[in-house]
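Reply to dn_fold:

You asked what the input looked like. This is it:
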Amino acid sequence: SSLEMAAAFQPQATVRYNGKIRSGSVTSTVLNRPWRLHHSPQDSSVGDESNLDSNNDELQRRRFLQQCLTIITAPMLAPPQSANAYGLVQFPCERPLLNTYHIMRAGQNLMEEGDIISTNPLFLTNREAALSPKGIAQVQEACKILEQNQINPSVVKYSLAASSMDTTAIVKEALKVGQNRLIPEFTFMDPRGIGKWDMMSYSQTLPAIFALDETEAGKDGKLGRPPPNDDGTPNETLGEQKVRLVQLMSVLETQFQGDTVLLVFPDGGTPALLSCMMGGIPFNKVHELEYAPGEVRLYQDMESVQTFYETRQQQSALNADYEKTLQLGKIELERLRELDPATMVSKKDLKIEMEAAEIEEQQRQRDEQKRIKAEKEQEARLLRQKEIQEARIQKQEEAAQARAKRAQDAALQRMAQSGSAQSPSEAGDKTIQIAIGGVASLAVAAALATGQSDTDQVGAVSSGSAAIRNDTLASPLNATISSVETSPMLNATILEDSETKPASNSRAPQDVDETSGMPEALPQVTLPFGNDVSSNKKSLYSDPVPTMEEKKQAAAKAMQEYMDQDDGGDDWLSVMGQLIDEDGDEVEDELDTTNEWQ
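and this is what came back:
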């Protein structure tokens, strides 16, 4: 100690303690305050006691100051000793490391699978850079290598890149590593930023970086800087990346001692640079130690790295492949440097544009399919409505024909009943009466259809009218007869003039009355129409008889007026169409939602 060193330089002295003279060192005097120092006289006896006490006090103060000065200056005179600063790692690692290190690269990620190189720290955690199916298989093979070598890491240090986190999760499950032994690293394990070349083609840009470092980086990696970028991607040299790796290893050596540490990097260049730092290999040869996706190297220290590098130099096939990669990289490097940075477009941006165009095209196709489907459904709805309308019209026509037939039958029946109520002499010619009634009904219907409803009297009818067929009554004029049948005018009775009717039923031609123009022997029919008919009495035959075409037109007009009546069918069809449209829209929305989720 400092006190012992100071005692070695002090002379012996005698002390008085409780009236007794004792010898001792200066150091012991300082440590034992009851002792009082003085020089023992060699050639004189002890004098007066008072003088001796005053001299001892003066000597004590002088010696005390001398001893304090000696204690202060003693550490400066001691020989220097080396400090045991184990946490500060010096590269190359000539001193043994306190931990055992195994270095592993994460498997292939989705960005690399898509031929895109990504080094921007902001995007490393994105799931688009997660492990691909091939990368998962590569990591599983690496875990088998660790198991075969009976390596169970006590610490797993991994980057926060998505591929590294996925790799660590697989290692945790395969090697049964506790969650508390998984240590994330936020910055020091990030890949080297390549600036403007970020998000370019992986297969083209990586050889260019190889050529850049081989020809320009130098042994210490201070040169060979990629072009800068304006999106936050750093453009770093190998020397700048070395600073992060020094901090990483220093923290690990300080935080852990005697542990088995597995380092999981997201790329192959960063662990290769760490190997160069450990083995003292020039940085411009870093890519000869490049890690492949999913590769793991065990027991990494200075000796193992140098052995691996020497073995690598002796493998001519690998050297030939590396030289070929360098030649391609030099050509690609020149091409990249000739590009205008303002017009450079990353492959990721091109991929995004292609995906956006593809999504737009898919949306257009879906819209086109929906449009075609809507048109087909509209055509189907119109066809259904047309069929319903036609069926409704057909049903109405059938109902009108049935009503007309019933009206015809009823008119004929009433006429027959009216004819049977006459005298027995008139009952023999029922056919003529029925024919006259049919002709009268046709005449009344024609008169009503043509606006001649004031006529209420029918003159004599010739015998030729009896030959009118019954099918005339079944013509479209029946619709008009059915409407007339409900009025009081159809309550007419047939009155025959017995004076003009011959006694026999002979059908021989008769003389024609010059005034009326009708056969005199035929009976005359009078139709009393009641109060609904005008008092102007005219013969039904005073006006021209309507032709068959006019009768058809009148019947068609009457039918059209009937069809134009609102029976609520259009409203019903409209409501049904709306319900069908709403159901179709709901089904389309559900199908679209299902397709989007798929």
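The first helix runs from residue 2 to 8.
Hope that clears it up.
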